[in-house]
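Q: Can I see a sequence and its folded structure?
A: Here is a first one.
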Amino acid sequence: MRTWLCLCWWLATGVGFCEPTTGPESPVAPLIRHVEAHRDGKASWSVDFSALKRDRPALPVGVFDSGIGGLTVMEAILTLDCFNNRTLQPGGDGVPDFAGERFIYFGDQANMPYGNYSARGGTDFLRELIVKDAVFLLGRRYRGPDGARFDKPPVKAIVIACNTATAYGIEDIRAALRAWNLEVPVIGVVEAGARAVSERLPAEGKPGAVAVLATVGTCGSGAYPKTIGRTSGLAGKTVPTVVQQGSVGLAGAIEDNPAFVCAPPASRAVAYLGPAVGRAEAPMVPSLLPAYGFDPKGLLGDPAKPETLQLNSTANYARYDVTMLAENYRKAGGGPTIATVVLGCTHFPIVQAEIADAFARLREFRDATGAQPYRALIAEQVVFVSPAEFTAKELFRELARRRLRAGRDSRQAPVIAGAFVTVPNLKCPAVKLGADGSLDTGYKYGRQAGCPELEDVFCVPMRDAALPLASLAGLARALPVTWSELRLIPARR
């Protein structure tokens, strides 16, 4: 596969082959060397180092995610007012904390969702993708209607607005920055989310359990349990019990990915990849159908034949994930009541209401005998933690500490100066597409790290990409400030 992908790039560009790497080096090492070898920023996935030596406080801040879910973090940043902008002390002053700042948003839409790569043996390639996201933000290159353009400003700081990318890639990005001798702060949502949990733990006594709803990749990394344990211990608090549920399809359903939801009647353009009876990575258990309590309007198949059922709404994905989390906790012997739920995927705050409803409904569920098997496991009032606000606070502190703020006296509202996403590169002969025009699932997860020159996706302005209309409509409702900013970008160019 690697040889064919490199051949694809060679055919498209006329440049020599990328040789496979050998030895135990990091899977992102070839990309680090590639960036170092193309310091003018003209090549694919490269950085114009000279542009980063200019007035750094005047540069924008970069925010990236595997898709549009990271816009929830963008909303928190744009609306934050938790500090005095002149004294830098905690306490709002009626002025946005990021007054005068500009932001660049990047969503790797073509390669999302990141959360499924590790389960399919693609961890090395995922790590390379994550560092490429940072390279794009640091560089100036993107794809315009007439070819490559180089008028995107580089960024002075990077926010990883993706839990999976933080879990698998934050240390790779920091290592790459050290190799390139670039002092660019990097803030990740997992660390911020763990601190948010720690702050909410009682000073004394045993805390309630913490549930983490995230992607399979984030949960598989163990990042949240480890980081929550570390931050709680450093704060002198009792480390809570942490239970996790790795969601296979909720993020994809939120973005209207046709592998997870489709418009009725049931005629899928691509194969269904959500929970199903007999699916090892996301088993739908027939005996739990009453507990799931699926809404028939968001379900495909015959309820009398569980093996035919397919989830087809975000509400039903939320009910499935919450039920499996509670059921696995119960089967493991239970423990402290779940009092805190971490929305460990930046997409999930968009459907917090559906997730909260799933917990409340399951707590009251009665089985055929009248028993309530989950009531003692779920608190009557569950606190939801979205790492977004805490990520925004961490960004403010870091910019202030490094003297990178745009201006302490500014009262101008922060703006999104640019927003970009990836789309498949149809000029690359190796690229395989699904019936809906997105990257074929087998191709997407079958790629390998080690060919950093390969450009099988293009980075384009968000307005030039065909994003799911339902997702965009949801953004307009859930993220009004960000939505307004995105609509204003063309007028600023």
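Q: Show me another, different protein.
A: A second, unrelated one:
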Amino acid sequence: MSNRLLPRVVLGALACFLAASAQNLADLEKRITEFTLPNGLHFIVLERHSAPVFAGLSFVNAGAANDPSGKAGIAHMFEHMAFKGTPSIGSKNYAAEKAALDALEKTYDALEEERRKGPRADKAKITKLEADVKVAIDKTFTHVDQDAFTRMVEENGAVGLNAGTSMDSTVYFMSLPANRLEMWFMLEADRFISPVFREFYKERGVVRNEYAMRIESDPQGQLVTALMNTAFADSPYHVGYAGIPSDIENLRVADALAFRKTYYVPGNITVVVAGDVDPKEVKALATKYFGPMPAGPLPPPVITKEQPQRGEKRVAIETESQPMVAIGYKRPDALNADDPIFDVISGILSQGRTGRLYKELVEEKKLALGAAAYATFPGGKQDNLYIIFMVPNSGKTIEELEKATYEIVERLKKEPVDDATLKRVKINVRAGLIRGLNSNMGMANALAAAHVGYGNWRKLYSQLDELDKITAADVQRVMKTYFTATGRTVAYMSPATKAPATKEAN
């Protein structure tokens, strides 16, 4: 029941598929074929012949948490570059383009070499090299057939073409007519094996602008970034998926090449094809197009772990916008046995108008305009946060809102949840899953996430079963264990400069 390694919408896809098709594990196994190429690339094929379409999804087991030090944002940047094409797609004259791209990198190298001299650098030389870099960038543009990759797939009926970078993974996906299966294999393999980082510095600006839009210009983005930066000192979750502006502004093509060499190796990628396909044909096409992809060593795991927190952390952001507060409690990773219990706790606290946060803080006490809880933030591979997010009502303070929230938390520790509430939450959680996507893409994402996160797609079934086994005692135990002042981080936005200090017993 996790939305960390396995997103909630993914579980929804599975639940809806099962409900609609009356499938059990044995029936689904008959529809699924798995194989691994000699280079280590794993494939999962799900047959669903209800419509002549299929979804293709490539799941890379690396995300923003894998960004090297000083290169925060490179995973996200690499995702953007995956749509720029290959030597055969996206260039008017690849030989001339390659020469221009190589010349650009040499000029940029010279600029960086001069900059590294620090106070001994020749400022006039730097100015000239900066101008030369701009000219070199413009020259590369003359050879680019813009958006050729996207245009080609969409002209062949692709829908939902996109990709996403999270803290823990990067996923590329699209849906196509079944008779375009070989075309998909050809294009997908080509952009993994032979990507061309054209328009890199233009796209670097796009990524930087995304950071400005989603964080610098968004109060909520500022709040959650402050929460991460404060809650985590050692963990790679200290920095969000959007990166760090100064790092983004200095990313180079060589950084993307190094990231690709380390993380985009066959053994670190899972490909799922779901829909109106023949597993034998899929395996033949996989061998033909992905077989030539060079094998490589698996990337090193993230070994840096967050040290135990020894007291409450607080961070304030002065703002003229609407005050907000985010409270994060340290919790274990998604593989921990307690993981599904946090989803039930979210149901108790913030399941619509029946959730305790809404009912008490919004309706009864009118302290908040809105309140919500999220079982995991910002990812699930590492120890992370259970967060409660609230917006105070007009005339109400952060202090008042915090105090009332902690009272709710303390009651859940001291008083077991009644059977009726627990039953209702479980029903609603399951109903929410069933309302999820009933699509080839939803199933493809579910299968890939389960295979990568748990080592076996069958974990989908056991996770759904775990929901029914959770007891009121489990909820109470998890609340007492993790929802403590010692493991708490509070980030708030307020015009006030004086930090509120709310105390209460664990």
